[in-house]
Amino acid sequence: MQNFRHTNIIAVAALTVFATACAKKQVAKAPQTPPPVQASTPARPAATPAPARRTPPPQQTARNNTPSSYPNAATRARIDELIARIQDAYFDYNQHNLRSDAITTLAADSKELGTILQQYPDYKLKIEGYCDERGSAEYNIALGDARAKAARDYLVNAGVPSTSLDTVSFGKEQQVCTEHDEACWQKNRRIHIEAEKKNS
To answer: What are the extents of the domains in the chain?
Structure first.
């Protein structure tokens, strides 16, 4: 009986050792959990470049719509009418300062004339300076030039573009009156304005 117990104890002990060994073996054989796979971020597709914006070409104004730098016939006729109404301005003997009557003459319609000429930069007016017959030719050329420039300065201040006004002096040439007295000489001391001819 004692031998039977002893045999049982040995058998239980052997089973325990065997079971423990198997459990260890199973634990040892248990596959190791692989490291967590990092979810790979899907590769972003290469950015498609935004289509280049096509800048529309600047709208070219049709030539018909571009204002001409030279007035048409009707406008030229109006300019001639204004110039005729301005008439000639007269000066005292040996003077180039504008007299009050000369200012009144130049003031007439000069603002409207300036408004028109600002629209037509290629259209030119010529201011001619004249003197009476007395004095040397050289002196009168200089005096006629001073008179033409005095008239030009007045018109520019009234709004006529300076680029539209040219000056020329004829001195004592081209007299409008040939008598040798003050009444006649007064008619020759003047400025005259006219439109320049268009170069063809």
So the answer is: 89-195
Q: What angle do CA 140, 141, 143 make, to 5 degrees?
A: 60
Alpha helices (runs of H) in the chain, residue ranges in sequence order: 2-29, 73-86, 100-107, 110-117, 137-157, 182-188
What per-residue confidence (pLDDT) applies to 13? 54
The region, left, alpha or beta by phi > 0 then psi within -120 to 50, assigned to residue 156 is alpha
Pair of tokens at residue 113: 């004339």
φ, ψ of residue 177 to 5 degrees: the values are -135, 135
CA 65 to chain centre: 18
**Nearest to 89, CA basis, from 186, 195, 192, 183:** 192
- Residue 100 CA to residue 110 CA, distance in Å, equals 16
Q: Does domain 89-195 have CATH number 3.30.1330.60?
A: yes
193/167 Cα distance (integer angstroms): 9
pTM passes above 0.70: no
pLDDT (0 to 100) of residue 64: 46
The residues near 85 (Cβ < 8 Å, ≥ 6 apart) are 108, 109
Separation between Cα atoms, residue 178 and residue 185, nearest integer Å: 8
Beta carbons of 194 and 148 less than 8 angstroms apart: no
pLDDT confidence of residue 193: 95
Per-10-residue mean pLDDT of the chain, 200 residues long, equals: 52 54 49 53 55 54 55 91 90 95 90 92 94 96 98 95 96 94 96 81
